[in-house]
Amino acid sequence: MKDTLSKAVATVFYVGLIPFAPGTFGTLAAVIFIWLLRPSQACQSVILVVSLLAGIKVSGIAEKAFGQKDCRHIVFDEFVGYLCSIIFLPLTPAYMVAAFILFRVLDILKPPPIRMMENIGGGAGIMLDDVVAGVIANIVLQVVRLADLL
């Protein structure tokens, strides 16, 4: 039962089983979630913290259940990474799309220090590279916001 529930959450309720670009679809699920829910900044903060902590746990369990290190079907890390990229930004289409694109580019290319997070291993390693990618994307977008470019 624990493995089944962990797989369901870690795959964002089976979005991660899509045979092509599962990480992109996991991120897209987060975009839709935020767009539909439109949570306040305080609510976003709570969702992010709870999701990160739960993600570390369920990703570690799901990784073992799938029998593959950082299995591509585990996309809850992309979901949480997107939450990091959009927090404290206006929930406008421009910022949401920019956060999506910037987060995905950083997550795919994994420049330092993002790639180093994968060395941690387990659920924390699965989650933290995407969290760092999301934080970097957010910092870039905060600068864009302060410069009033978007």
List keywords for this structure.
about 150 residues; mainly alpha; 7 helices
Topology:
Layout: H1 2-10, H2 22-37, H3 41-66, H4 76-86, H5 93-109, H6 114-117, H7 122-146
Helix pairs in contact: 1-3, 2-4, 2-5, 3-4, 3-7, 4-5, 4-7, 5-7
How would you characterize this protein structure?
The protein contains seven helices and no strands. It has 150 residues and is mostly helical. It has one domain (2-145). The longest helix has 26 residues, at 41-66. The N and C termini lie far apart (46 Å). The model has no long low-confidence stretch (mean pLDDT 94).
* Secondary structure category: mainly alpha
Gyration radius, rounded: 15 Å
Task: Quote the average pLDDT.
Answer: 94
Low-confidence stretches: none
Order of helices and strands: HHHHHHH
**Mass-distribution shape:** globular
What's the end-to-end separation, in Å? 46 Å
Question: How many DSSP H or I helices?
Answer: 7
Query: What number of structural domains do the residues give?
Result: 1
Question: Looking at the chains present, what oligomeric state does this protein adopt?
Answer: single chain
**Can you summarize the main beta sheet?**
none
Query: In percent terms, what proportion of residues is strand?
Result: under 5%
Summarize the structure in short.
The protein has helices spanning 2-10, 22-37, 41-66, 76-86, 93-109, 114-117, 122-146. With 150 residues, it is an all-alpha fold.
